[in-house]
Input
Amino acid sequence: MGALIQEFNDYRQRMNEVILSKNNLVMKRLWNLDTNTYDAGALSVQTKEMLGLVASMVLRCDDCIKYHLGKCHEQGVTTEQLYEVFAVANIVGGTIVIPHTRRAAEYWEELIASR
Amino acid sequence: MGALIQEFNDYRQRMNEVILSKNNLVMKRLWNLDTNTYDAGALSVQTKEMLGLVASMVLRCDDCIKYHLGKCHEQGVTTEQLYEVFAVANIVGGTIVIPHTRRAAEYWEELIASR
Amino acid sequence: MGALIQEFNDYRQRMNEVILSKNNLVMKRLWNLDTNTYDAGALSVQTKEMLGLVASMVLRCDDCIKYHLGKCHEQGVTTEQLYEVFAVANIVGGTIVIPHTRRAAEYWEELIASR
Amino acid sequence: MGALIQEFNDYRQRMNEVILSKNNLVMKRLWNLDTNTYDAGALSVQTKEMLGLVASMVLRCDDCIKYHLGKCHEQGVTTEQLYEVFAVANIVGGTIVIPHTRRAAEYWEELIASR
Amino acid sequence: MGALIQEFNDYRQRMNEVILSKNNLVMKRLWNLDTNTYDAGALSVQTKEMLGLVASMVLRCDDCIKYHLGKCHEQGVTTEQLYEVFAVANIVGGTIVIPHTRRAAEYWEELIASR
Amino acid sequence: MGALIQEFNDYRQRMNEVILSKNNLVMKRLWNLDTNTYDAGALSVQTKEMLGLVASMVLRCDDCIKYHLGKCHEQGVTTEQLYEVFAVANIVGGTIVIPHTRRAAEYWEELIASR
Output
C-alpha cells in the first residue's frame, strides 16, 4: 500500500476511535447514516461514490476526496472516468479546485500502483 | 411550462445576452467550456448532469441547481434517483443544504408536471 | 404573526411534505437526527440554538437563520444576547455576513412584535 | 435612479438603522473599519473597490456585489474593466459564479443608465 | 505542553509579529476587535468561545478551531459539552466537517493531557 | 530560492504533468483559459494578479495564494500594497482568513528575500 494511503487510513481509524469513545449519539448516528447514503439503491454504488467525490472536490475537503477516491477505485472507476469527474469539479468550482485536483491525482496514482 | 421554469429560462437568456454582448473573451470561452464539460465521454450525459447537480447543491447555488434539474429531467433521471442525489448532497453538505433541497423539490415537481 | 414568519413557515411545511412523501430514508433519518441535535444535553437548548444560529450565519443560509432565530426567540434569548451572536458571526465570517445580518435583524423584529 | 438601485439602497439604510440602534459595539466598530478599508492608501480607491467586488463575487454575496458595483461606478471603472473583474471571478470561483454575474450585469446596466 | 499546541502557538506568535510589523492599520484594528468580540457581555466568555468554535468548524478553519479549543479548555468546557458542539457543527456543516473534527479531537486530547 | 517557494513550484510542476498526461480536454482548456485571464487588457497584469490574490484569500486556497503572491512579486507589488490587499481579504472574509494571511506573510518574506 502506498505511503499516502497508509497514513490516511491509519490516522482516520485512530481518530475515529477517539471520537466514538466519547459516546456522542448524534455523531454516531451521523456516521452510520453517512455509510447508508452510499449503499446501492436507485443509483449504483459506483455512481454514488462519484457523486460523493465531486461534492468533496468542490467543497475542497482533501480527506473526503481521498476517502471517495479509495471507494471509486474499489468500484472500478477508470482513470478516464475519474478525470471527467475532476473536469466537472474544476468547471463548477473554479481554479481553486486545482490544488485539490493535484493532490487527488497523486493519491489516485498510488491507488493504481497498489493494485 | 411551469411559472418557475419560465421565469428561470427567460431571465437566464436575457442576461446571458447582455453579458455576451460585452465581448469578454474569457467569459465566452468559459461558457463554451462549461457546455463541453457535460458532453458524453467516458461517463454518460446523465451521470455528468447528476454530478453537476450534486456539486451545485453542496455549493448551494439555486440557479445552478435549477439548470441541472432541467438537464437531469431531459436525461430521464427518475424521482427516486434524484432523491438519492439529494441525499448525498445533504449528507456531504449538511443541513444548510435543506432549504436548497426544498426549492429543488419544488422545481422538480414543475418539471414533472410540464411533461 | 408577521408576514415573513408566516411565509417562511408555510413554504417550509409545504415543501417538507413534498420531500418526505418521496420516502428517501437517508433524508428522513437526517431530519430526525437534526432535531435530536438540539435536544437538551450537557448544553442547554438555548445554547445549542445559538450555536445553530451562528453556524447558519457564517454559512450564510437565510432560511436556516430564520429557523434558529425562531427557536432562540422561543428559548428566551434577549436582543442583547442575540446581537452578541451576530457580532461573533460577523467577525468570524466577515462583512459578507452583513446582508444576512440585515435580514436576520428584520426577522427578529417581527418575532419580537409577534409576542 | 433604477428600481434595483433604489430598492437596495432603501432596504440597506433601513436595516442598518435597526442594527445600529441596538448599540452592539463590535458591530459598530466593524462597520467603521469596513469603511476605512477602502480608503485611498498605497492602492487607489478604484483598485480597492475592484478588490472588494471580486472578493464579493467569488463568495457569491449579491448585496455585497451591488454595493461594490455602485462604488466601482462612482470611481469610473469602465464596462470593459468591469468585465475583466467578472472574468477573474468566474475563473477563480467557477461556473457557480455565473448566476451572480447575471445579477451583477443587470445591476450594472441600471447604474450606467442612471448616469 | 503537547507538540501540536506548542507548534500552533509558536507559529502563530511568530507570524503575527511579522504581520503587525508592517503597520497596516486595518489589520491591527481587526485583530483588536476580534479580541473584544469574545469579552464577557450579555453572553459569557464560555458561550462566546463555543460560538467561535462552532463557526470555525463549519467554515473548516483548522487553526481557528485550535485557537477556540484552547479558549474553551481555559473556560472549563467539558468533553461532553465539547462533543455537543462538534455534533452541531457536523449536522449543520455535513460530513465534510468530519476530517476537521478528527483534528479537533486530537488537539483536545493534548489539551486535556496538558492540564 | 526559499524552501517554501521551491517546494511549491516542484510539487505543482510534477502534478501538473501527471494531470496533463491524462489528456482530459476540459482540464487542458481550463488551464489555458486560466492563463489568458491574467493577460494585460483593460486592466493591467498587476491589478489582475491582485484580484486573483484577494479572491484566493477569501476562498482560503493556500496554494492559489502562493501562486498569485509569486506573480504579484514579479509585477512589482510593494509590501505596503500587498498588506492592503490582505486587509480587504480579512475584512470581507473575516477572521477565518487570518491563518491563511499568516502563511501568505511567511511566503512573501521568502519572495522578498529571494530577490
